[in-house]
Design brief:
The protein is an all-alpha fold. It has one domain. The chain contains seven helices and no strands. The radius of gyration is 21 Å and the shape is elongated. The relative contact order is 0.18.
Amino acid sequence: MSAPPPIDTASDTAYARGARQLDRVALASGSAVAWLIAPMVLSLCYEVVARYLFNAPTIWAYDMTFMLYGTFFMLGAAYTLQRKGHVRTDSLYAAWKPRRQALVDLGGYLVMFFPFVAVFAFVGWGYFVKAWSTNETFVSSAWQPITWPFKLAMPVAGVLLLLQGTSECLKCLHTLKTGRWPDRPSPEATEQPLTA
């Protein structure tokens, strides 16, 4: 696998530089959160072995798994947004010029993304504070683990998404100004010559 073509920094703007700084937060959080997969898989494997080989199921493995998966899912959302990993229907979008793409993206972020994420972070903070102050536990489980670490993931995910959404908006503003995406190589740099 060859290295990606270098990103053109000659036509850099303050928007692109700011976006790169904010991208570092999503990349770091994504790298850290990826480690949640290990304890999740280990708890699942332990449960399967305990249940089916020794006929001794645990009372904690299911709760541990859904809390870790939920945390992984929420805290990984900003990383996924930075890496363009969310589902996108781009049958029209792909054929548009970068400025039109940026205008549509910017409108989507301002009208749909930011209001939803702000509400998610605000409501998530309320859930966390209630869980923390009452020492809430999951009553549906015999293990009854505390809920606040799990619920803390909601406002943290909201803040991470707000930061990454800001980065994406800065990339859109850069593209509206320059006509090129700051984090994507130019089409000329990625074209492969045809060989017979």
